[in-house]
Amino acid sequence: AQKITQTQPGMFVQEKEAVTLDCTYDTSDPSYGLFWYKQPSSGEMIFLIYQGSYDQQNATEGRYSLNFQKARKSANLVISASQLGDSAMYFCAMREGMDSSYKLIFGSGTRLLVRP
Amino acid sequence: DGGITQSPKYLFRKEGQNVTLSCEQNLNHDAMYWYRQDPGQGLRLIYYSQIVNDFQKGDIAEGYSVSREKKESFPLTVTSAQKNPTAFYLCASTTSGGEYNEQFFGPGTRLTVL
How far apart are CA A44 and CA B104, in angstroms? Predict the structure, then answer.
């Protein structure tokens, strides 16, 4: 069974609008972390935001926020005020356990295209 | 500047040849990882190492080998046993022990088997 599911292969958003990228996860470990990465066409992976399973508040980093719904096992990425440079692949990933050296499991990604 | 370097950027291999992909980091990170990415797909873990002289298999280790003799280096060898090695390979590293440390990634190596 897939542990990280991203159901949107591709998304469009108009420049300056907000967009939500979906991510659901499956784990029986009470301690876990959730990550979002951006991958532009150049290929490098850029870390965006992190949410720990015990964090009481949703994580925010500038224009990025994570809508964490623990009971539903979802960790959706919200990008506000989209910019043309946001066009890229976005990956959700999960780490089971709290040590940062533990391995990550990645979803299949969502390709976001921002329209001018 | 601190970071992760991978070389070469592009690599072409004939069938039946072993090739080694380089990954070096100067971030003083304990843990290092190798991922494979096929077109339009997510990253899959090949091998990872949480400490020098120790490494573990990931989900798709068959046909690959690694070594971790130095903290800053984690080379990946793609052997002739790997049936379909054409892919984009990403190396990553992170510090261990803390919860909030993300993995940092190198720029990747694109391997093509001719």
Answer: 10
Bridge-partner residues for A110, per DSSP?
A: A90
If we measure between CA atoms, which residue out of A98, A35, A94, A96 comes closest to residue B97?
A98
Query: What amino acid is encoded at A110 in this protein?
Result: T
Give the best residue of A2, A3, A35, A45 to mutate against chain B (max B CB count within 10 A): A45
CB-CB contact of B20 with B82 (8 Å): no
* Segment-wise mean pLDDT, segments of 10 residues, chain A, 116 residues: 89 98 96 96 95 94 97 97 98 90 93 97
What is the C-alpha separation between A4 and A77, in angstroms, rounded?
A: 14
Q: Check B100 against A108: CB less than 8 A apart.
A: no
How many CA atoms within 13 Å lie on the side-chain side of A113? 5
A43 touches chain B (CB under 8 A): yes
Task: Note whether B102 contacts A35, CB cutoff 8 Å.
Answer: yes
